[in-house]
Amino acid sequence: MHILIIEDEKGIIDFLKQGLEEEGYAISYATNGKEGLEKALQHSVDLVLLDWMLPGMSGIEVCKAIRKERQSVPIIFLTAKDTVQETIEGLKSGANDYIKKPFSFEELLERIKVHFRSNHAIEKLTLGNISLDKNKFQVLVDKKEVSLTQREFELLAYLISNKGKVCTRNKIIEDVWDIHFDYDTGVIDVFMNAIRKKLNLSKDEELIKTIRGVGYIAND
């Protein structure tokens, strides 16, 4: 599961990143509102941890903008703003939860788990005769289970989550592999060939189509 942290205090970012990665979450972060909004809309993000006071755009503005484009992604405010009115304003902007600084990491972790559980419906993805359940780590083709490796599963889930959008090789490397430096993107083709073979898809199959020189697109 991919969590995006939008926070301008490096100490808090480092603290959250270390703790959440130890719990098995993939973490990316942004240090200002504009960058955070771009990452929230352009990347495959499962939950957003959002500060209120941010350079460029406020957390409220970011929250409203994310919610317009992505209805179901959970958003949790982490902020020193602590009046009742401010809490109400944060929730009205589209946030799912509101935690006041300083906070307990253990409490935050449990809240994250609650939101992932309550948001489980979007963890079930479909593409034609293919169904994918993130919670069960299960892929079915015509209701028959197909065994994928973790990386194959993550790549397939990413493509289906971004159904109808061209996923470039560079974006896949960043969002699925969490690699943010020059890397041989040819490895993606190796995994795609394995996925197609296991799902019995040809290279000309419209469900997952190769965009030559660019990447892939999933379409029903």
TrEMBL record:
One of its GO terms (biological process) is regulation of DNA-templated transcription. Residues 2-116 form the Response regulatory domain. InterPro entries: CheY-like_superfamily, OmpR/PhoB-type_DNA-bd, Sig_transdc_resp-reg_C-effctor, Sig_transdc_resp-reg_receiver, WalR-like, WH-like_DNA-bd_sf. GO terms for molecular function: phosphorelay response regulator activity; transcription cis-regulatory region binding. It comes from the Bacteria. Residues 122-220 form the OmpR/PhoB-type domain. The modification 4-aspartylphosphate is found at D51. Residues 122-220 bind DNA. Keywords: DNA-binding, Phosphoprotein, Transcription, Transcription regulation, Two-component regulatory system. CDD domains: REC_OmpR_CusR-like (cd19935), trans_reg_C (cd00383). GO terms for cellular component: cytosol; protein-DNA complex. The keyword Transcription regulation applies. This is Response regulator. It comes from Flavobacterium profundi. The lineage of its organism: Bacteria, Pseudomonadati, Bacteroidota, Flavobacteriia, Flavobacteriales.
